[in-house]
Amino acid sequence: MFEAFQGLAETLTAHAIVKNLTFPFVSLPMFEVAGRHTLAQSRNELLFFTPFVTGDQKEEWEGYAWENQWWLGEGRSIRLENDQTLQTTSFLEGNITPQIFEFATVSPPGRDIYSPVWQMSPVPFSPSIQNFDFRSSETNAFVMDAMQIVKGTIFCRTLSG
């Protein structure tokens, strides 16, 4: 299972290197395909990429995310081609939230680090979760901190708000 997630991480990193991109400003083309393979290998139902965004990068990230939401349309097209039970109307059209946000509000400025939900597989039916600060609950922040320390995959029993 760990190898599946490591493979996706290496694919993201290779894409960043080849395109001369720096994290967190990386979006993987055809993430839906890579994600679907990772999910099949790991026997999970959902995965998402939540980059680490420093407080100094927050505003730049929000601009980047707004300008790079193309992957949602691409992912929907791929998913529609591979899942005959879905229709175009299965997906809610619209843009992502333009700012990193928490459950009820925009994430406050001045934090050291944020972890906005970015690319997902399967691609979401609604773009409303993109830019949600995954670190905005204590449990999730603990997991994200552990990931930064070990620089690897972390599994835990449950992640909730």
List the helices and strands and how they pair.
Blueprint: H1 2-18, H2 31-42, E1 47-48, E2 53-54, H3 58-67, H4 70-82, E3 113-114, E4 120-121, H5 138-150
Antiparallel strand pairs: 1-4, 2-3
Shape: globular
Mean pLDDT: 85
**What series of H and E elements makes up the topology?**
HHEEHHEEH
* Individual helix count: 5
Category by helix and strand content: mainly alpha
Q: Walk across the major sheet and give the strand order.
A: 1-4
**How large is the share of residues in beta strands?**
under 5%
Domain count: the total is 1
Using brief descriptors, characterize the structure shown.
two-stranded antiparallel ribbon; mainly alpha; globular; 5 helices; 161 residues; 4 strands
What does this 3D model show about the protein?
This protein has 161 residues and is mostly helical. It has one domain. The chain has 5 helices and 4 strands; from the N terminus they run ααββααββα. The strands form 2 sheets. Strands 1-4 form a two-stranded antiparallel sheet. Helix 1 runs antiparallel to helix 2. The mean pLDDT is 85.
What's the short story on this structure?
This protein has 161 residues and is mainly α. The protein has one domain (2-150). The chain has five helices and four strands.
